[in-house]
Structures are given as structure tokens and as C-alpha cells.
Amino acid sequence: MSDTAIARCYDLLEVTPKTPFKLVQRRFLFLCKNLSRTSSEYQQFARAYVAISADFECRRNGSEQETQLPPPTSSQELSNLYDQVNREFKRSETSDFGMYATLGSVSGAVVGLLVAGVPGFVVGGAAGHGAGKLRDKHGKSVSEYYDSLTPAERENFWADGQKYLVACVKQIT
Known about the structure:
Elements (H helix, E strand, L loop, with lengths): L2 H11 L7 H12 L7 H21 L14 H19 L5 H40 L3 H6 L3 H22 L1
């Protein structure tokens, strides 16, 4: 990709090559938030984002050669790009101790203490932390998240929940 073409991509998203990639993602999400995924403006932003991503990857790998234009992407792939970037951005922004995870830990521990004493305190805190962390990560309550899963994912959800609780209890004790 020529330097002028990649420069136009940076200009379109109003970022520079020195802008951290997280801010590039944030800018892309901001610009496309209210656009129809099939509009030509959205398609331009999405293609620019794909090109900038390739440029970042090339520079991260230390390649001195000119950034190659990524393979053409279909309109369908571009329309899904916003959701993919949004999920990736939220996942990277979510820490183990987000607001809901902390609130869930405290409230779960208090309820657990009232119901079952010290063991309830430990298990309730771990369960509350897991539920809050899920809300921090996906922006949905546990029941909303569970309803959106396929039957196979639901089985894994319960198995992963058990493993998480056991790991938390082992870590605390």
C-alpha cells in the first residue's frame, strides 16, 4: 500500500501512525457508532481501520517493507467488523476488578456471611465476583448473558462456573 494511501486512511480516522492502537480502536468505534453497517461512510471507515490494523501489525513485527494492502474483505465481513472491534476493545478494557466485579464480591460476601457464616463469606464473595466480572465484560446481567447462549455453550457455562468457584475458593484458603 502506498504511503499516500495509508496516510489517507489515518486521516480518515483522524489518527496518526504514532497513535496507540487502543485509541485507533476507540476512534473507529466512536465514528461508526451511529452509522448503518451498509452505508458507504461506514464501509470507508471499516476499510481504513483494516488498512491501519495491517500497518500496525507490520510495524509491530519490525518489517521494513511497505505495508501490503490486506486482502479485499466482503461487505458482510466489514459489517461484522464493528462488533468484533467492540468486543475486543471491551475485553481488553475489562480488568479483574471492574466496578461490578468489586460490587459483586462485596455483596456476595456479605450475603454469604449472613446465610452460612465464614464458608458462605468465601463462596459468596467468589460467586459475586464472577457474576460482576461477567457483567463488566459483556455488559449484560448473568441471566441475559445465559439466555443469549446456545445449548452447547450453556453446558460449558456451568462447567466453567464450577471450575471458577473451586479455583477462587482454593486461592482464598
